[in-house]
Amino acid sequence: MKNLIVGSAGWRSSYAGNQEILSRDKIKELVNFIEEKGYKSIDTAPAYGDSESIILELTKDLKVSSKLNPFSNLNEFRYQLNEIDTEKINILYFHDQNLVDKFDMKQLNTFVNEILDRGLTPGFSIYDVESLKKSKDHLDEAVLYQVPLNIFDLKFLKYLFNNQMNTERVVFRSLFSRGLVFLSKESLKNVLKEDLKDIREEFESFYKLPFEKKSMEALTYSLIKYISKKGHDLIIGFDSISEIEYFIGNIDISNENAFGWPSLIEYSETINRIEDLDL
Question: How far is residue 22's CA from residue 114's CA, in Å, rounded to a whole number?
Fold first, then answer.
């Protein structure tokens, strides 16, 4: 999968409940595997423990995407930008979902242009369609948007379905709902608690499938294959080579046409937002 960007949030931090911090040797194995297979990139950030510095040290020809931590003014922005390794990093995201509301378009364009002047591609990490609408026509066409997408929330695909936008500018993340799709019935009860009944009813009414692991996995792999065929890049977190191989195997046997995604996307409503999940 040439569009696969491997997320490293769990490699050296407790992101998404990951309790096993990877050793430097394990990270080296992963980085070498990713480069050998020709996957697009690795996604990292200064906030992911010390994984970024290790990845940048170990990569050979692979370019890496990273992020700027939230900042409140131009000086703070420039301080972080000056720390970026422009030899290894080619995409730099603003890791602040409220950025579009914190600054006006003139200020945002200043940030974007300074990133472009360093030879980097700027990107926004956002959660709501309104931020995408507000910014996409007022910022440089090189700007990327990293947005959540999963079987419980197709809103960004629905927006793209009805609005012309270059698919290469929209990168999808959170495709497995932070691991929700792999949970057993008992675990789903523990995680969703009082929301379980409503989510189950909405899921089963919309997809006409039982709300269970088997259905959720089948839908997710089919959706990933569908958006890959459309030309989108994907960020998916993996903590081992075996996880990547398991994923690729399931993508290979999945059918992007099995569920009629164009119709589902057109009539979809959000069942659950990724930011509301306590996982």
Answer: 34
